[in-house]
Design a protein that fits this description.
This protein has 167 residues and is mostly beta strands. The chain has one helix and ten strands; from the N terminus they run βαβββββββββ. 14% of the residues are buried.
Length: 167
């Protein structure tokens, strides 16, 4: 019995996982060698039976199952619009876009590079510094029925009667 990981998930290739490039789809070798090894956090989102599809921003590569360092998916992706929170004046609040997602091995956490007005901010942020702007809220169905509309009788007040003008 083969057990597949729950996807999507995130991870990094801090070292080259296997000799040669046979584990990389032939069309993706050039991009994969730019991404791997590095601390770039990749999102693994599908498996076609031979290759996992890994995404970073708008780009994808396909790799065969290999060892990587799995990291917690904090829900952000390259290209997401975010609000940088002030955090008691620790950060300058602004609206920006995530340009890089990197794993900080020393502190075992993910760091996000953000740009605003097409200028990179001087330092990376952790997830608690950021508020996503592109997520839509989902409201659940109500558990109760709304109250029925009713006409209140007020002594001495006449109601205007409207005629039905539909033909």
């Amino acid at each position: 019995m083969t057990i597949w990981p729950d996807m999507p998930d995130c991870g990094v290739y801090l070292a080259w996982p296997d000799n040669g490039t046979q584990w990389i789809h032939p069309e993706d070798i050039e991009l994969a060698t730019q991404w791997i090894p590095s601390n770039r956090v990749l999102r693994r989102h599908s498996y076609d039976g031979e290759y996992y599809r890994l995404q970073y921003g708008e780009q994808n590569i396909r790799v065969k199952p290999t060892m990587w360092h799995r990291v917690v998916d904090e829900g952000f992706a390259v290209g997401d619009q975010v609000e940088v929170l002030g955090r008691f004046m620790e950060n300058e609040p602004c609206i920006g876009r995530i340009t890089e997602i990197r794993f900080d091995k020393q502190n075992n956490r993910i760091l996000y590079s953000v740009e605003t007005r097409e200028l990179p901010l001087p330092r990376p942020f952790i997830s608690s510094d950021l508020m996503p702007l592109n997520r839509k809220m989902q409201l659940r169905e109500s558990d109760s029925n709304p109250p029925q509309a009713r006409q209140v009788e007020i002594p001495g007040m006449e109601w205007l009667k409207l005629e039905d003008t539909t033909m």
